[in-house]
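Sequence decides. Consider this:

===
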Amino acid sequence: MKAMSLLLSSLFIFQINSFAQNDRINKRDKNDYREIISLYPKALTSDLPPNIDHEKKIGLMVLRPPRGRYLSYIHLALSYKDKELEELRKKAHEKAKGIYRFEDPYLIIPYDYKEFEIIKSDSIRNTHFTDMMPIPNFRHWYYSFIPAFYEEAVIYLLDAKEGRFLADNCLSKSGVGLPPKWIHGYTKGLIFYKNYVFYWLEVW
């Protein structure tokens, strides 16, 4: 029970600068990942890898267990070999409800993941895109992406729905700055950049 309490109160961050190629997944990373995703409904984690393979290199892992008041999220980046990458890209293309580049218009979650607060300027920008499904605010993730990422990455929005998908005491108390119909909900998808795939699940 003590171990679980520590797990639930922690922020797990494993990141490498500029996507270096030398950080392998260890046993603790794998266990932490499995433990955290098990706390979310399976329907929400269905597009995340069920396990993270020690053969793959990890670029980023930020895991937040479901908890009240704030946004709950899983951010994961794994490197893949060419064949695996193309298979994932094909599946994402078939399933995606939206495909974006960073210069495109989209409804963004106006959230600062380091400060756990709504960014008012991004919230105002959203008034032009209220009929779209939300995607994360990648520029304010816990990890700072290199400039080329914003020029070359392709975003695949796999699903997003408004509503309550966690227990009430695990939901954001006042939303995350989205239009009123999105006071609660989730978004999930992935991004392709070079040989990395960035997965996201965000629930509020």
About this structure: The helical segments are 2-8, 27-37, 42-45, 82-95, 120-125, 147-152.
